[in-house]
## 1
Amino acid sequence: MRTFWKTSTLILILVLMASCSPAAPTAAPAKPAAAPTTAPAAAPTTATAAKPAATTAPAAAPTPAVNIKRGGILVHATGSFPPSMDPIYDTLGTHLKEMGLYEALLRYEVTDFKEGKLELKPELAESWQQVDPKTITLKLRKGVKFHDGSDFNAEVAKWSLERMGNRPKSLSKRFMENVTSIEVVDPYTIKINYKAQSALQAMNLTVATAGTGSIGPAILSKAQMDAVGEEAFGQGKVSGTGPLKIVEWKRDSEFVLTRFDNYWKDGADGKKLPYLDGMRYRLIPDNAVQLTELKAGTLHMTRALAPADLPSIRSNPDLQTIMIKWGPSRYYYGFNQKKEPFGTNIKLRQAAEYATDRENMAKVFGLDAGTPDYLIGWTPAWSGYDPKLKMYDFNPDKAAALVKEAGYPNGVEIELLHQIQTQHRRMAEMIQGMWAKAGIKLNLLPADQAAAREKIKLGEFQMHIWSMAPSPDPAYYERMFTCEGAANWNNYCNKETDKCMFEAQAELDPTKRADMYKKCEKIVQEEAMIGGMYLTDAVLTYRKEVHGLKMQTHSEDVQEVWLDK
């Protein structure tokens, strides 16, 4: 299977404006990195290095410290806990990063919440350089300690990265698929050699997730893993380099964390981060309970609330929201290319596209956080996003005419596989009602998530509806749009699409790459084998006393959070 390595070479600027109530948080300024970030000569590694000729992007100068208050316990909530604290086995994907336990070599940070700008920055690597299209070298930060007291260095970085690819059940293998070798150049320099040229190498050294589990290449302590064993490590005896370290995992209620006094980074006040004394990461499955506690002040932050909660949130002066438009979740339907009647009948597929009222679906299911999804995958944050390709407006009359042209003058009957969860059932019922007016009768086939996924993998369906987690770059969807893709659940196969997707992810010039992805997008759109329904933004809700909040793609970063209370 062809690799799908990814990263980004430029700031991603959203067309859609992120909605905040009130304004998005102001991050507490940090001291500049110890060394400048190095960018490749062919294409900028960091998002700020816009000119290809530039080889360094200096860190921003520090700004005067505001009246930062130290101390306090941040209380964060989630609706589910990861099964393991070992990042390569964390099926939920983001939780471990949100707890401040782990760091990666690089960051992919949201630098403008309103505009949705993101930028590659140093983290455990203080600089990086694209030596040639198949080689990156990274200068690692000196003086970094793990929570267990052991040193971070090149040997540990190499071991941690290689471990992602050599564990049989690792969810992070994809990050190593394009790597041929990792070399220790000196105690604080590593060189990564790749099989193929790719513009997406640096992002895979961040914890920017791709919706497939694990938090990516978080760097772990080899000394701790050797001392306690892999199983005990994953069940709570963890050791990372983050600003907070684990105290206790109460499996049915919360993670308890405390500040790591030997954390490497200074705050804006000149003292060691974090500002917090600790954090409680609580398990609260009921959204209503979370909202009640947020209003009461016993909870500071959550991303688990639904769009339906927005009116109540926005009416409370103690609460703030960030609409994460740069990382929306997507709901779509897919046709099985190997099954009739959709598989070889493009007019019938197009009829279904015109029969779909995406505007209404976005309002009903997404409410204030919903956006119609006309482009079958591409979002405004992606390279090559082209809103001019909005091809399938809601047009019931045209849909009905196309059904007849497709060879079904009396209509056609189709089986629609869907999950039994309430929202998926309601989506299926809404599609059923809309398409019936065009002469497409849908018989609904409900199944639990595991059974539905198995049927899809085996190809035992005519069409299905599903959802996809956020992704920071279109190259991640090679998994979905290419013939041998690991998430190609529609049996979609077009060699022209394969060629386009693989060539685009290998292109180093950001302008050329965007043009290539516009071509890929157009091919997929015209094929109409997959149809978008709507996008929904995650709703990050937090109290007004929370300051200094940062984000890496769609994950909260508590590194510089402080409480004004």
## 2
Amino acid sequence: MSSTTVAEGGRAAKPPRGRYAFDPSAHAERIAVVLREVAAAPETPSPAELQLLLRRFPRAWPCADDAARGGVYSKSELIRGARHLDADGGLERHGIALTLPELLVRLRRKPIRTLSGVAPVTVLTKPFPCPGKCIFCPSDVRMPKSYLSDEPGAQRAAEHQFDPYRQTLSRLLTLHNTGHRVDKVELIVLGGTWSFYPEAYQVWFIRRCFDALHDFAAGAREMQEGWSPAIDFRRLDQRVDGVRRGRGPTPEAPSYNRIVRAFDPGPRPGDQRRNGDGEPAVGAAADWEALAEAHRRNESSTVRCVGLVVETRPDRIDEAEVLRIRRLGATKVQIGFQSLDDEVLRLNRRGHDVAATRRAMGLLRAAGFKIHAHWMPNLYGSSPQRDLDDYRRMFGDPDFRPDELKIYPCSLIESAELMAYWQDGRWRPYSHDELLEVLRGCLEATPRYCRLTRVIRDIPGTDIVDGNKLTNFRQIAERDLERRGGRSLDIRARELRGERVQAEQLELRRTEYEASHGAELFVEAVTADDRIAGFLRLQLPRRPDATWIDELKGSAMIREVHVYGAVVALGQRREGRAQHAGLGTRLVEEAAEVAARRGFARLAVISAIGTREWYRRLGFRDGELYMVRPLATDSWERR
């Protein structure tokens, strides 16, 4: 980048046009002044207060090696400057009276992103044919099935042409540059039906995500040059006509599957060649050993995968698929219930019945997965009262009872076949009051062991043809519930975020409930006012020797351990923060004691790749797919 010039009379000349490359060393002196002011403030400045401060100390130019155009520093520039100053002899040497982590807390953009204890990194698989024929599902052929090209996460994926490595590295860079720690990453793989993609693609996709974690940990701070892009689905100009498809498939009204398959036919089955981006051919053998090596590297990395999520349909789950998902390193499965009413499923051409959902839940729970369900009110053939009955069935029937839940009221999207039903009057979106009635009832009926991660899908209003376009409907429903004297007790409504907490002041509270294979124990560490700082899910099978997974025979199972609070660096402790205060260990020891008292000889855990080292320190030993700790049951009887 060429340097700027100074015109006669000392006035700075207009910097050259072109790409702006911010160099923190060139701005170090001015940024140090700003950071001293930020550190001297009694608390984190509000956005308005920070803007006033930045206007007092505008960006300095000309500089030796950048093309800044004046104006004020952005938060990301202040963060890069803070890291530069910390490396250049430490912030204290520059008169800044906070440590780098403390300073980043004050500068962090969108702090809510990591306040649940992990840094979420969401990546999307490429558009691919879907086994489902749901009339409500969007059919944007530029996206994997059910996703829309206007959604922010989808736009990021399309920008990188669905390459897993670039998506992962890009998200890590964004989080890092906006002040978030990325030591503990939850990798969320979305897009279509994961279990319908070829095995070779699945293995390659996950390995490349882990490669990006490794490279970022090794210091990669920019995209690799020379990347050979995959096929660019943004160039696909065909669209699915929802109205015409809803009135019956014809050659003039092609389906999502037909358009996507024609645009990206891929290699023939059995072809061992690679695509231009290194993606394996559909028939190529899966390189499981390369994935296993990527897993091993991540166990001791400074950027670890502490959770891996994939999403699928109930009718794609069998024993072999459960083991394959586990072998990939997954610890959580998002699964589309949509409804637990066979008639509603049939009318919406879902392609499976409630019995398939019941079987899938049993297999996934027996294998220890966290289960994140999707449920949709306002489907064709339902009603507000029918939806409320269905929701109560979901938590009343032991075969369901998900750990997490997304409530996605049906939205009318132009590419969905539901458009034809709307046009001829067979279906209509709920009114504001009807939707409020349903969501208020759902919030009130959600048990304390479940986390409602979403209540409205964040679809851009421009994509919704008719119906609700408010994305803050959860807040509306919560306020309405509170006015009526109720409150939501789900995990998300009670979790600690940026609040300070002392671990010794937390009480362990147990909630036990029946599930498909036995008892589930939800152990939560709560404050005096019932705020949740951490929790553990313990499965206590009725017949522990009857499992179809040999290494789990005789075992109780830890399905999840989660400690809330902003992400704290691995191995560090912060006063007043829940993470790294021994709370996770306390929860695991509570689970071991309960399991031993109930007569279990072993305690298993479905460990993420990046948490294996921690579980080893707690006495767990590596198995093929799980980690197991022997329990001395008689020692508890002597106490």
